[in-house]
Amino acid sequence: MSKQAALPRPQKNTAMREFFATYGIDDDVIAAGVSGGADSLALALRLQAAGKKVVALTVDHGLRPQSRQEAEYVGQVMHQAGIEHHILTWAGAKPTRGIEAAARQKRYELLEQWCLSHGVKTLAVGHHRRDQAETFLLRLLRGSGVDGLSCMLPVSARGGVRLIRPQLGDDPDRLRAYLQERNIRWVEDESNGCEDFWRVKIRHFLPDLEQKIGLSEQRLAETAAVLARTRAYLEEQTEREIQNNVSFFESCVAAVSLQAVQKLHAEMAYRLFGRLIRNVGKQAYAPEAAEILRLLGRLQADDFKGCTLGGCEIFVAQKKLWLVPEATDGAVLSKQEWQKCLRNLPQYAKAKLPYKVRRAIFRHLAKDDNGNKK
């Protein structure tokens, strides 16, 4: 790819500034994931035009012969625009199956790790309106509920950083026009033409939906936004339920009244346990919906004794449901070890905590003592 002349300075970007104001994003420095596609190149330049110091990060997955050349091309464009740029490389063996999902996961891991190690709190990615419409249809095919159909959120938390998508409402054709006005070429992803991927099939089908029944990508994205508001309300109610009725012990154990759970609306119980299992089990995602619903069905019976799910052990004691991290090594907590633990936690001396709870607390503190950060 040949070098270009210095790029013209982008004009002020009102839409970006409005996005920052709406979501209270006041960071001076924002990292941007820039693959070389039109959407991510436009993202970096528009963030800069809105007055932010931008650090562009390109992940080289090493899955195609030309990937390094494309990453270096991004570096050229960023250099000409006066934007700091770094290439992050996926080293080591690559999976032979599920490569698309694995590459996406690794991309976010590398981006998040860079941000955390460099003190950057906000990471921007270039998803746009068509991406949102495709995601809606993909999840509709999978039978997703409110959370899935609300699709990608403009602002969310991921891996210790704030993930923002300021172009989520933008027409991708407008983003390409933005680059064309500045004589900037972008890299076309070869997988965009591969009919083996469901997203590509949907992308090719979207124009037919609009022409034949008037269902446009804008309407699909708007529907996702409506559902996102519903999701936000349900999450607020879930948080309120947690604050009012859930007790936590040393950030590693949760307890809630079994009777209170049995009285909850099914949707609220589903959300509550999804959140608690994910947090206690230290998982990136909650278990599959069917697994949580199966658990809730068992909780309605009087003979529920316990189970494991999502890295948690869930059991009944003292008329409460307890969630503790699953212990797989068979280690036993001695009375002497618990007494040692109580020196630092005297508030539990008279508490009648179940054995599994005491063991979880001890193991949690022992990890801290050994220098393994949570």
What's the short version?
The chain has 374 residues and is α/β, with parallel strands linked by helices. The chain is 49% helix and 15% strand. A six-stranded mixed β-sheet has the order 3-2-1-4-6-5, sandwiched between helices.
| CATH architecture assignment name of the largest domain | 3-Layer(aba) Sandwich
CATH topology of the largest domain: Rossmann fold
Flag low-confidence runs: none
| Number of separate domains | 2
Helix-strand category: alpha/beta
What about the largest sheet? Answer: 6 strands, mixed
Count of helical stretches: 14
Can you say what the CATH homologous superfamily of the largest domain is? HUPs
Oligomeric state of this protein: single chain
The CATH top-level class label of the largest domain = Alpha Beta
